[in-house]
Design a protein that fits this description.
Elements (H helix, E strand, L loop, with lengths): L30 H35 L6 H8 L3 H5 L5 H23 L6 H18 L1 H9 L3 H5 L3 H27 L11 H21 L11 H15 L8 H29 L1
Length: about 280
């Protein structure tokens, strides 16, 4: 019968007509891409190594002879690099100085972070930051000297905005650690700060005492001659007096404050040295 229904044809899988979208994929050789990636990785590592070496040699010259002794030619000659190689990494010596300062300020921030987690009232944590400052200036002298270079306006003005922003970030992180302790003290009712001051402005007073006094201690050859026989003790007395002046609890006598600073140093010294050695090995 013409109208008889016939079953549909069933094709075996192997005989099924191919569709346009079923075209076999072309063979794709990834070997050239892997080779390019390996070369890029190797080149990046070489660039990082050269940058690290430039900073290492520059630091030595800067510490030994000051900023005036540092030059792109001098570093290139000492490293036996072409001068053009130097400019592939840094546009000028001011940029090198800021890169070195970032390394130094990173160490300071790490010391602050370790100090800020000591147990006890917020005032003890603030005192631990003082211990970190003492360690930084006494045992990380090169870093302390490098850090001072960024205060030179001519060096700052000749550096890039990108590097300046890294410095601002480092300073902001250090300030954030200290200001957080002030806020904790206020929240715990261990401290009441004047309405005219922000926590950061309160910190600024301690920063001025510590940093300014430490610069004078390091740079002035005549302190004993003018009656300053123990500058570290003088700094501690001033900091204790300032803390007491704000009625930051627990209020302490100078002798008690100094005894606690000695205990903090004993607790933190090994951790401080570990952080310093870690950063040196990394760089």
């Amino acid at each position: 019968m013409q109208n008889e229904l016939r079953p549909p044809k069933i094709y075996p899988k192997s005989a099924k007509p191919a569709r346009k979208e079923d075209k076999p994929l072309a063979c794709f050789d990834i070997a050239p891409i892997i080779d390019i990636m390996v070369k890029l990785t190797r080149k990046q590592k070489e660039m990082e190594f050269r940058t690290s070496e430039i900073l290492r040699v520059s630091r030595q010259i800067l510490i030994a002879e000051g900023f005036q002794g540092l030059s792109m030619d001098r570093v290139a000659s000492q490293m036996e690099y072409a001068k053009g190689t130097m400019y592939n990494h840094f546009p000028n010596k001011e940029e090198i100085v800021l890169a070195l300062a970032v390394e130094s300020m990173t160490l300071r921030r790490n010391l602050f972070e370790q100090s800020a987690i000591v147990k006890g009232p917020a005032r003890f944590r603030m005192m631990a930051l003082g211990a970190a400052c003492e360690f930084f200036t006494q045992h990380c002298t090169d870093d302390f000297l490098v850090e001072q270079c960024i205060r030179n306006q001519s060096i700052w003005d000749k550096s890039s905005e990108q590097r300046q922003n890294l410095i601002r970030q480092c300073e902001g992180e250090c300030m954030g650690i200290v200001a957080a302790i002030v806020r904790d003290a206020v929240a715990l009712k261990e401290l009441v700060i004047p309405e005219s001051l922000t926590p950061e402005e309160l910190v600024f007073g301690f920063w001025a005492i510590n940093y300014g006094s430490q610069i004078l201690t390091y740079s002035s050859p005549s302190l004993p001659a003018i009656g300053i026989n123990d500058p570290r003790n003088a700094i501690r007395v001033h900091c204790c007096t300032l803390l007491n002046g704000f009625a930051w609890q627990p209020v302490m006598m100078h002798a008690e404050y100094n005894d606690h600073m000695l205990k903090l140093n004993e607790t933190l010294q090994s951790k401080f040295w570990s952080l310093k050695n870690q950063l040196q090995s990394f760089n």
